[in-house]
Write a structure and sequence with these properties.
This protein is mainly beta. 9% of the residues lie in helices and 39% in strands. The chain has a single domain, classed as Protein of unknown function DUF192 (Jelly Rolls). The mean pLDDT is 91.
């Protein structure tokens, strides 16, 4: 799965995975590291929690057309984040959103081929 931001011509994640099964959606990044992939995508989701996490994450909230509604930088463990109206949530390593210049309103392109 690749996540691109054609607004500023950046690849946000070259090896994203979709959390599709109930277990992978519940677990998310808990106990995982960004080694074999660089983003986790949750469709039909508008919130995340950071309970029991050990690393901070950047979070993207997208609408049904994959437009960025809001983003959160470096959410620390034991926090929560949500955006009412979001259709998709993406978890990324902390710092990626600033590095890539992602902003609300950007239209992303998501191509999916790897599922957890």
């Amino acid at each position: 799965m690749v996540i691109k931001d054609p607004t500023n011509d950046h690849v946000i994640a070259a090896r994203a995975v979709e959390a599709r099964s109930h277990l992978s959606r519940m677990r998310g990044m808990l106990g995982r590291r960004f080694e074999n992939f660089d983003a986790m995508v949750f469709h039909k989701n508008n919130s995340i929690h950071m309970f029991f996490m050990r690393i901070p994450l950047d979070i993207l909230f997208l609408d049904k057309e994959s437009r960025v509604l809001s983003l959160r930088h470096s959410i620390r463990p034991w926090r929560m984040a949500m955006h009412f109206g979001a259709a998709t949530t993406i978890e990324l390593p902390a710092g990626v959103l600033k590095e890539k210049g992602v902003t609300p309103g950007d239209q992303l392109e998501i191509t999916c081929d790897q599922v957890l």
